[in-house]
Write a structure and sequence with these properties.
The structure holds two protein chains of two kinds. Chain A contains 21 helices and 20 strands. By secondary structure, chain A is α/β, with parallel strands linked by helices. A six-stranded antiparallel sheet of chain A has the order 4-3-2-1-6-5. In chain A, strands 8-11-12-14-13 form a five-stranded mixed sheet, covered by helices on one side. Chain A has a five-stranded parallel sheet with strand order 17-16-18-19-20, with helices on both faces. In chain A, helix 1 packs across helix 3, helix 5 runs parallel beside helix 10 and helix 12 packs parallel to helix 13. Chain B is built from seven helices and nine strands. A five-stranded parallel sheet of chain B has the order 6-5-7-8-9, sandwiched between helices. Chain B has a two-stranded antiparallel sheet with strand order 1-4. In chain B, helix 6 links the parallel strand 8 and strand 9. Chain B is globular, with a radius of gyration of 18 Å. The termini of chain B are far apart. The model of chain B has no long low-confidence stretch (mean pLDDT about 90). The chains are: A alpha/beta, B alpha/beta. The interface between A and B is large, with 39 and 39 residues.
């Protein structure tokens, strides 16, 4: 700094003070004071018995950002009229100079106006000051942007580090335990335990990924919530059913504080998601024997439904509560080890509650328990829509009924690639008495529907080879008119529309809700007739192919004979193509045999030809060749 | 090949040459009088003729590939023939397996279809379609000359409301997507059964 330089003239106290004030006000990190060096004596002169005020223009107003010497009587803001500059107080004895692009420099004179020469010199000084202040403002803005970007990067890195840790932990367990299964020395009991560990970690990972997906949607502001009419008693029944399962080993009670609305406009899936999370947390952090209470009440004035979840668990310290709703934060990191969980549930729940026009609040005391209060907007509720009679809410007190299983008849085609889901669906359908036929992808579904009559199709949407949407579209093109119900884990409005557009009649969401599942089957299938299981279990015969439908037609017999007569030549052609390595020809011959074989009573021929076609397609020519003798063998009996 | 001289085509008159599509389908033969103004309009844009070596215009002749490159699609479409009852329906089958053709032909006749044309190549199917404009068309996808999908697109350009059904033993995704895009009306997946054929035929009157 120049005041420290031995070559500079000694500074007056005034000058030092002004220099210091400027440096303090416009930032010490920039050497602005040095820039103003030449103008400093002018400042000192102008200041003799007066006060300098720097005002920054913000929209139609001037705000004081600096004055010297300090005083309480300096106005903090001044109105600015665009034509006349600042509107100074009537009795103010002031001179001012514009600070271009920035504001004004005001000199309060208190009866001693500055000499004319000084007044003339003030504008260049003001210009210089304006440049300095502009630079300073830009610097501050840059600094702020830089800080924000750095904070965002830090948050992102922390998030990624957390996430990869969260994912790696269960994954390590899965890989490690799976590898240990390769050791055949393990006794069966231990193997079983190992497999259960793998499954548990798999489920955890699955839950984590769902949460991360939800969270990323929330952060991108793309989380969709529905507003549909929900019956409160039904919603409460569902919640009690879930809560009872979640709070095993604890005392769970629900209390209604009437009046409560009979219906509300909201998103039932999301409400359940929030409550499952909160009740699950309450149960997790409450050692047995303990209690979890759910209070339901309604704020008529604000039209908010309130769920209060109270537990007698370990509670939290104030510092923990503050960070509770941040993603990946649990009360402390040891919580994860002891209690599991992803640390995303509360962040997601609160975001969901806010999307539903409410919020989540928490009160907690260490070692005494926690109280989470969820508020949700209900939409307009009139006084006459309120339930005051406890009896009207009565059904929710009884434990959830086991779903009653309808007795049905009919043939159901299920296209589902996941073996576990197939097993579950088989179990459920079997109990109704209906017949089920499984296929593993859409193409096979279309194929089956060509040969056999079905009364209902359950179509998974995400399958290999051909997905449910395409298969549905194709089935409709083949003229299949029976109901098709989409099975989907994605139940967004867009997914539903796509399924409807493809030709589906209805949806079932996965995981399968048994009540909804049975209701759906009852809707599309007739009830079992009085002759009961006998009728229902008698499998419908496979459709007659054209061959058997007209097999007694002499014209057909003639065609069939002609086909049989041509068959050896066709097979010889196919074999020759193989010997000549004319792969496209080979594939073509196989394809033709496949298309026509079962029409003439030779389904094995169709199957064999299909295998040759597929092998050729996959360039497995040896395998294709190995099948040719089988073809010959197949035709041998026809010759005799 | 050479593009036909549009002026030379007159309604109710036989054209001076056999007329082909750029892809090689015989669309109209020399002896047959041109039956409708739409046929004339389409042939004037899409018609090509073969050139003899001694023809004075032989020097201007184009190869098939070049003709296909320069080919245009007429904006005219054939007059709609609607969806009459089955006993008035004319059908067309294209399949390269004679046994299959005969079978389908037989079943269609049994269902009451009055007239069934059959073709063993896609090109002859296109020619037959252009001349007879059947109400109902069954196209096999795997044909030796042109894919049934190409024939489907051509037929839908000439006569968009014709009922065209793809017959295939490969109900693969690509086939379905492409056929859908071309406006296919039905899909018959081999092996044919009474059920899937009657189902597809039900679409003839419902769609």
């Amino acid at each position: 700094m120049s005041e420290n330089s031995p070559l500079s003239p000694p500074c007056s106290d005034d000058e030092l003070a002004v220099r210091h004030a400027i440096a303090m006000s416009i930032g010490t990190s920039l050497d602005m004071a040095t820039m103003l060096d030449a103008a400093l004596p002018l400042f000192v002169e102008a200041l003799r018995g007066r006060r300098i005020v720097v005002l920054e223009q913000q929209q139609q107003q001037l705000n004081t950002i600096y004055h010297y010497p300090p005083s309480d009587s300096v106005p903090t803001t001044l109105p600015l009229s665009s034509e006349n500059g600042p509107q100074l107080p009537a009795n103010c004895d002031c001179h001012y100079w514009p600070l271009p692009q920035f504001g004004i420099l005001l000199l309060q004179c208190d009866g001693t106006p500055p000499p004319a020469t000084l007044a003339a010199a003030m504008q260049p000084l003001a210009n210089k000051l304006a440049v300095a202040l502009q630079g300073c403002r830009q610097f501050r803005e840059l600094q702020a942007a830089h800080d924000a970007a750095e904070a965002a990067t830090r948050a992102k890195s922390a998030f990624l580090a957390n996430m990869s840790h969260e994912i790696r932990t269960p994954l390590t367990a899965i890989v490690g335990f799976a590898e240990s299964l390769l050791d055949s020395q393990q006794p069966p009991a231990q193997q079983r335990q190992t497999i259960q560990t793998i499954i548990r970690n798999g489920h955890h990972l699955q839950g984590l990924l769902c949460d991360i997906l939800d969270l990323s949607k929330i952060e991108a502001d793309r989380l969709e919530v529905e507003r549909i009419e929900i019956s409160l008693p039904t919603l409460l029944t569902d919640i009690v059913a879930i809560a009872t399962g979640l709070t095993q080993g604890l005392e769970f009670t629900i209390h209604h504080l009437p009046p409560l609305p009979a219906t509300l406009q909201s998103d039932p899936t999301r409400i359940k998601q929030i409550l499952i999370n909160l009740i699950g947390n309450a149960a997790k952090f409450t050692p047995s024997p303990g209690a979890v209470r759910l209070l339901v009440s309604f704020d008529q004035e604000q039209q908010l439904l309130m769920f209060s979840i109270q537990d007698s668990g370990i509670g939290m310290a104030p510092a923990q509560i503050d960070r509770l709703f941040e993603p990946f934060i649990q009360a402390d990191s040891s919580t994860t080890r002891q209690y599991g969980g992803t640390g995303l549930g509360l962040a997601i729940s609160r975001a969901l509650a806010r999307r539903l026009g409410g919020d989540i609040q928490v009160i907690s005391e260490q070692h005494a328990g926690s109280l989470f209060v969820v508020t949700l907007a209900t939409g307009e509720i009139n006084a006459d829509q309120l339930l005051t009679d406890m009896a009207q809410l009565q059904p929710i007190h009884s434990p959830p009924e086991r779903p009653s299983i309808p007795q049905l008849q009919g043939q159901i085609l299920v296209a589902e690639d996941n073996p576990d889901n197939r097993a579950l669906l088989a179990l459920l359908i079997e109990r109704t008495g209906a017949q089920v036929h499984f296929v593993e992808n859409g193409e096979a579904a279309v194929d089956s529907a060509q040969r056999q009559l079905f009364d209902l199709v359950l179509m998974d949407m995400q399958m290999p080879v051909m997905g449910g949407l395409d298969a549905t579209e194709l089935l409709r093109l083949t003229g299949f008119a029976e109901p098709i119900v989409a099975l989907t884990a994605n139940a967004t409005a867009a997914d539903r529309e796509a399924a409807l557009a493809a030709g589906c009649d209805d949806f079932l969401t996965k995981p399968i809700d048994q009540n909804a599942f049975f209701a759906c089957l009852s809707h599309y299938l007739p009830a079992a007739t009085s002759c009961g299981t006998q009728c229902a279990t008698a499998a419908a015969p496979p459709l007659p192919t054209v061959a058997s439908a007209i097999s007694d037609d002499p014209r057909f017999i003639q065609m069939q004979q002609q086909f049989y007569a041509e068959l050896p030549q066709r097979i010889a052609d196919l074999q020759q193509a193989w010997q000549q390595q004319a792969w496209p020809t080979l594939q073509r011959h196989a394809h033709q045999l496949k298309g026509v074989g079962s029409s003439f009573g030779l389904p094995q021929l169709t199957e064999l030809a299909a295998r040759i076609e597929r092998a050729t397609q996959n360039h497995q020519y040896q395998e294709a060749g190995a099948l040719i003798p089988e073809l010959h063998a197949l035709c041998q009996p026809l010759k005799s | 090949m050479l593009r036909v001289d549009g002026e030379a085509l007159q309604l109710m008159q036989p054209p001076p040459w056999d007329i082909y599509s750029a892809s090689g389908a015989l669309l109209w033969s020399q002896e047959q009088p041109l039956s409708t103004p739409e046929h004339v309009a389409i042939l004037q844009v899409e018609g090509w003729r073969h050139i003899q070596r001694d023809d004075p215009e032989a020097a201007n002749a184009l190869s098939r590939a070049e003709a296909l490159r320069q080919d245009r699609s007429a904006e005219t479409t054939l007059a709609s023939r609607g969806r009459p009852p089955l006993r008035e329906v004319v059908a067309l089958i294209a399949d390269d397996m004679s046994i299959f053709r005969k079978m389908l032909q037989q079943i269609l006749r049994d269902q009451g279809v009055s007239e069934v044309h059959a073709a063993d190549t896609s090109l002859s199917a296109l020619g037959l379609f252009f001349q007879h404009q059947p109400h109902m068309v069954f196209l096999d996808i795997d044909m030796p000359d042109l894919s049934g999908l190409v024939a489907l697109k051509q037929i839908k350009r000439w006569a968009p409301d014709t009922f065209v059904c793809i017959v295939t033993s490969n109900g693969t995704l690509v086939n379905v997507k492409e056929s859908k895009q071309a406006g296919v009306d039905g899909f018959l997946v081999k092996p044919i059964s009474t059920i899937n054929l009657t189902r597809v035929m039900a679409r003839f009157h419902s769609s």
